[in-house]
Amino acid sequence: MTTIRNHVQLIGNVGQEPTITNLESGKKVARFSLATNEYYKDSKGEKQTDTNWHTVVAWGKTAEIVEKFVEKGKEVGITGKLKTRTYTTDDGNQRYVTEVVADEILLLGSKNDK
Questions:
Q1: How far, in Å, are 6, 56, 79, 93, 111 from residue 12 at the CA level?
Q2: Taking Cα atoms as reference points, which of 72, 54, 63 lies closest to residue 29?
Q3: Using one digit for the tens of pLDDT, what is the confidence trace for 32-41?
């Protein structure tokens, strides 16, 4: 049962071009937003879409895959875990950020997708 603790699986579309950072240690980190959609019918029977946005962070080899193959609009599948971190803004307010740390990325859609 330990494999299902803090486990996230998402399929969605990349919201903007990934940002790639090369750290001093030689490691790479990739960040991008992912939109996931849920569809439902409202009380009038009309189809509605609820979009949720997720911040995805990938490290090392996974970041290299993101750098080479992932672009805005691309449909991808992500497996990973949730990570919450805190930081203090310049004006002294504490902020919390929850991100999906990707272990694996699956490229979806056809090869000709742009």
A1: 19, 11, 12, 32, 17
A2: 63
A3: 999 999 999 9
The continuous run of DSSP H or E covering 107 comes out as: strand 94-107
Distance, in Å, from the CA atom of 12 to the CA atom of 107, rounded to the nearest integer, reads 10
Contact 73, 14 (CB under 8 A): yes
Q: 75-85: per-residue pLDDT in tens?
A: 999 999 999 99
User: Whole-prediction pTM value?
Assistant: 0.84
Total residue length of the chain:
114
Which residues are 11's β-sheet partners? 77
Partners of 106 in the β-ladder: 77
